[in-house]
Amino acid sequence: MIRSSYMAILVYNLSTKILANLKRIEDLRANILLHPLSLKDEQRLKWDANLSRIYWSLTFKEKVPSKKLITKVLTSPTPKKTDAITKDIIALNNTFSFIKQNWMVSTAKVKIKDIKKLYDISCKPVMGSAKGFTSLSEKNINHTLDYIQSGKENPIIQAGIAQAELLNTIPFEQGSARISRLINYLFLYKAGYDMRGLLVIDEFLRRDLVIYKQASESVHRNKNLTFWLEYFTHILVLSLSKSLENVKNLHFYLNTPPSFWKLNERQKNILQYLEAPDTRITNKQVQKMFTISQITASRDLSRLASLGLLFSRGKGRSVYYISV
Question: Which residues are CB-neighbours of 85 under 8 A, at least 6 positions away?
Fold first, then answer.
């Protein structure tokens, strides 16, 4: 099967390798979704997967923080003054939360403004405002987004094309490679392919940078996406195979003491309160519910958010929390 457009770079063939990989991905996805897990184990696996997503994304930089440092940053109140590494950890955590909150099983079309939003959340805190975004790069990206969202391509193929095109377009002076790796998460989550919250792609892109570079460069060199899509779907097979192994064997990336996951009675009651549909809670509400200080309420809410049990929305005094 051939899918092409007026831009030769978007030509590709659904080869036997791609089709075999897509079938394997669906099988692995089904096994991950259907495997029985306790709520505690599932939440811990999700938290570990988020930690791993952040860690492997940061391995593309020269200075790579340890998983213990990432854990400390994610579970501690944000200090007023932060170094570049801390800012980067927080930025990536916010980005993955943004993708989950705003794009999970979404019917909205991905647009240029969404690419820029990803940059603002994930790159701007460390790299500064976006530079180098020309009218030509915007035109090329618009074409790609229109192309992959106008047909009925498999969402995995959509995600792969989006990553390859952003890698080759290089729309920003800094951060283009990171945005290209984040856009595939966005497209996959959009189609409900979050794999129970356990999807970690960057690990297997990073493990062999030579092949990653060869596959991405083949798109521009050959004016064809087939080899890249064979590579990309293979990467997902490797990623999901590991996720399934983690689910079956309850393998965690970081051994944390039981106390790390223990909640106090107030925190349990907050989660119970938010079980009702369309319920939200603010710091002031928590203060009144338990007759506690603003600082104590903030600690409880931050603790629940850092464990991935709550989402925070809004800014400043308008911040409120909802259940995951």
Answer: 63, 65, 69
pLDDT, tens only, 106-115: 999 999 999 9
Confidence (pTM):
0.86
- The closest alpha carbon to 130, from 113, 108, 109, belongs to 113
Residues 234, 240 contacting (CB under 8 angstroms) = no
DSSP string, 96-148: HHHHHHHHTT--SPP-HHHHHHHHHHHTHHHH-S-----HHHHHHHHHHHHHH
Q: How many CB atoms lie within 10 A of CB 12?
A: 24
Residue 310 to residue 301: CA distance in whole angstroms: 8
Q: Please give the average per-residue pLDDT across 306-315, as a whole number.
A: 82
Confidence of residue 9 (pLDDT cuts 50, 70, 90): low
- The answer to whether 186 touches 100, Cβ cutoff 8 Å, is no
Statement: residue 4 has pLDDT above 80:
no
195's tokens: 């794999």
- Domains of the chain, earliest start first: 2-249 (1.10.3290.10), 263-323 (1.10.10.10)
In which element (H, E) is residue 271 found?
helix 265-273
Over 60: is that where the pLDDT of 12 sits?
yes
Q: If phi over 0 gives left and psi between -120 and 50 gives alpha, with beta otherwise, what is residue 105?
A: left
Report whether pLDDT(259) > 80: no
302 touches 255 (CB < 8 A): no
Task: Encode pLDDT of 86-99 as tens digits.
Answer: 999 999 999 999 99
* All residues at 6 or more sequence positions from 241 whose CB lies less than 8 Å from its CB, including other chains: 28
